[in-house]
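RETRY 2/3 - previous attempt timed out on the joint model. Re-submitting the same 874-residue input unchanged.
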Amino acid sequence: MSSETHFTDFKSDKQPTWCPGCGDFGTMNGMMKALAETGASPDDTFIVAGIGCSGKIGTYTHSYAIHGVHGRALPVGIGVKMANPDLEVMVAGGDGDGYSIGVGHFVHALRRNVDMAYVVMDNRIYGLTKGQFSPTSREDFETATSPEGTNMAPVNPTALAMAAGGTFIAQSFSSHSQRHAEIVKEAIEHDGFGFVNVYSPCVTFNDVDTYDYFRDSVVDLADTDHDPTNAERANDRIVDPDTEYIGVLYRDDDSVPYDAVRGPDQPMNDLPEGAPEGADRLVKEFY
Amino acid sequence: MASDLNWAIGGEAGDGIDSTGKIFAQALARAGRHVFTSKDFASRIRGGYTAYKVRTSVDRVESVVDRLDVLIALTERTIEENRDELVDGSVVIYDGERTSMQDVEIPDQSIGLSVPLQDLAEQAGGAIMRNVVALGAAAAVVDFPVDYLDEALVKRFGTKGEAIVANNREAARLGRDYVRGEFDIDTDYAIETTDADYVLLNGDEAIGMGAIAAGCRFYAGYPITPATDVMQYLTGRIEDFGGTVVQAEDELSAINMALGAARAGARSMTATSGPGIDLMTETIGLIATTETPLVIADVMRSGPSTGMPTKQEQGDLNQLLYGGHGEIPRFVLAPTTIAECFDRTVEAFNLAERYQVPVFLVSDLSMAVTEQTFPPERFDVDSVEIDRGKVAGPGYEESVADWTDADGHFQPHAVTDDGISPRAFPGTVDAAHMTTGLEHDERGHRTEAEDERVDQVDKRQHKVETAREREDLSWREFGDPDADTLVVSWGSNEGAIREALPELESRGIDVRVLTVPYLYPRPDLSGPIEAAERTVVVECNATGQLADVIEGDVLEEVDRIGKYTGVRFTADELADRIVERVMEVRA
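RETRY 2/3 succeeded.
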């Protein structure tokens, strides 16, 4: 809407109850900044949140929003966007929400490529239930429910996204606030499903994937010769187990969003007072 | 001249049984005859016994009976499966030249007509048309002019080209001529045609048509027998009215997509069967607590678990009334006829938006796959009224400013006199707000404050009380209003009960019948139950789920007639069972 939108317009009057220092502060602020920079206004923005620490985002932001059930945020977002193409839809979740209980929806949302942004606050732990391993926890990560490590390979979200046909796959680090906002903004502006996995450290329960760890290890693709439109090169980066890349890993500029083909041109909320015009022919079809 | 003809075609799944039956049913409807069809099918794509039965009369027909007048048997098993229904003078059409049918034994009381279906079909242009040859043969038996088949053949094969249609027409005529030329049979089955023109549709189609008429624009679903026809009906049609159908990856996704669309302001629905309702139950609470209007159709089949997917049952009532943790206000509407599937669907959308609650629309397999004729004016699209309930925003009855608190926050859960607060569609200026599955305050933000919790629970339950006061949630009644015996039922049993009445009367038993389309909130049945000497609740389940809730409501014991074989009640069977029950009580 207005080009004068400021990111504070998207802030609510509620104070976050996240732990002091939580990565989610930076993740959320970057999302608000990105929204403001695209020119969206709170009145035409819809934020869908999952369950967990990340799920609180709807409370701390000011826009239309829904805080749903665990793992189902993506289908809700798809429904919102399909019903009203004029809305800027952003879905926020956590690694448990998106890659464990909701992993099926994640895969199919990537395939479906509805024009919206999906930001995952990935802290590699379950925070709100006080410190159990998550789908992205390392194999040797010791927690209350994995005293000897998880004995499972972690989910690689960007590889999963690539395999499922994602059309915009990016990674970001909440602490690099300006860069993070840029990446989210690019996801919003992508014509299709913009997926951003955000390293969003949990200062209370995860003493391995810390700010220091990410600060020391992230490599910004913007500082390399990476061409995100080259799928083969993107794949090489995505499956590289030794580097935590941030930036846009892959982007298909020719993708056609599902809603552009299967969705309506107009918001569905405007209805006549009776049956829509031409509905009487429905009866005649049964002759 | 027979007023009532019972016809069937049976064979293996994949033999084209369904399309043959449908062609005949449509032709009869064109010929001004009423039709009621039923399908007997197995949960597999090819092989296995399958049958399509057509009951037809110049008068309205609304159930199946235990009798067959004409049977087209494409396999020997067809005769075995239907042996009990063959009566004195029943005609069995079969292809005696087929290797597998050469030794077939026609029951003594029946007339076997061996027609070289395959040979004649090949003469017409292809063996695949043997079903249509059989149709022509059956038409000759009942003196039904084959010209009436032509229109139905165009409808079925028109997209495959004129030559295919012409060949099929020829096939029907060869079948007719063969019977006329080879047999000199004298049956009572000659049927009358009239000038009326009826529409022919099943319950799932009536739900789909009702949804479009009611302004439904968004449908998300996952294929499941026997609800899939709702989605298939909407696909390719709803788009013409600005809507869309999404086939989701599972039921959890389907209902959450539908919820998202509803939250964005669309009239939205999903349809599924029992196993899908189980998966969707998680989200029902979210719909209720966010006060989002949504219509969820449950086309019941036999359970529990995967049960018998292609068989009849009415076993989900408890799930719909009580499913979900916590306390969830909801509506449960149960149409009792195919035509009523249309009406109740329209009403479901209005109730959902008027009260901002989940509305279950319950149908069952027998209603979903059965096709029935109706005068087209029975589906009065022009009289559909769309009531969106309380909406705030430009162009709606409420203004955003009136529902905004002192700090400038829109209050989607404002406590009101009737429990209903205005909602605002996303995009409405100055009404941005959140909704959540967490308990919340009037503004939609999380709270654990005792007074706010109580206010919101009361508000949600209050909507049910408001509906009880404002809506006409009554029963439908027929039979003898002064009878000693009261029969209460729900869902697709109504037709069979209606048709059992003359038989009951002839056996000296008058009954008063109530069918209940509103199962929650539901009407108070204590008056009719007190007035009757005995009450019998008829339903397709083992435990008597409606009977249980009625007993709880009226604090009086009721009698039960249940059936859970997977097959619907027939009128004859119901008459017997009601008589049996009345006699037991009298004894």
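The radius of gyration of chain A is 20 Å. Closing ticket.
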